[in-house]
């Protein structure tokens, strides 16, 4: 029936795609690779996790700019003798990075980092802020001080 031919055609198409894929080059250092992260925000901290399998601490750099941008930079190097004319590789090799802007409530001087079992975990503490309360604003003029209550400014 037609179903068998359609299935054969699908397998042939799949084989063509796989053969074409095998002929492509492994991405170079210039290739854009966006490091995927998980970000969890809690009351007192922000936790950022990134999978970096096979990398050592010396392959990873974490920095925070004066503007509050946290950047993770890493490099996976190709080992000498790892590739030959008969090899095929899909794993990314080269440099990659990821930057995130920290909220104003972050305390970058207290960031801790841990690389364990191929997972980089960054814990960013938050500054302690007072709970929002109404503020009384005194307005002075010739008739004496007056006051009005205004809600606090919205938090970022």
Automatic annotation (TrEMBL):
A Pfam family in this protein? HSP20
Q: Locate the coiled-coil region(s) and give their ranges.
A: none
Q: Where is this region: Disordered?
A: 131-156
* Keywords, sorted A to Z: Stress response
Please indicate which superkingdom the organism of origin belongs to. Answer: Eukaryota
Q: Tell me which residues make up the SHSP domain.
A: 28-142
Give the family, as the similarity comment puts it: Belongs to the small heat shock protein (HSP20) family.
Q: What is this protein called?
A: 18.1 kDa class I heat shock protein
Query: From which organism does this entry originate?
Result: Auxenochlorella protothecoides
């Amino acid at each position: 029936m037609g179903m068998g031919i359609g299935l054969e055609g699908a397998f042939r198409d799949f084989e063509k795609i796989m053969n074409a894929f095998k002929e492509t080059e492994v991405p170079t250092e210039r290739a854009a690779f966006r490091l995927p992260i998980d970000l969890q925000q809690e009351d007192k901290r922000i936790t950022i996790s990134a999978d970096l399998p096979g990398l050592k601490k010396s392959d990873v750099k974490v920095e925070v700019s004066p503007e509050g941008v946290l950047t993770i930079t890493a490099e996976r190097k190709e080992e000498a003798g790892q590739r030959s004319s008969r090899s095929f590789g899909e794993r990314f090799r080269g440099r990659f990075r990821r930057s995130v802007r920290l909220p104003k409530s972050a305390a970058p001087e207290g960031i801790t980092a841990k690389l364990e079992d191929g997972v980089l975990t960054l814990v960013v503490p938050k500054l302690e802020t007072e709970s929002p309360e109404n503020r009384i604003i005194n307005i002075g003029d010739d008739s004496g001080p007056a006051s009005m209550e205004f809600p606090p400014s919205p938090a970022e």
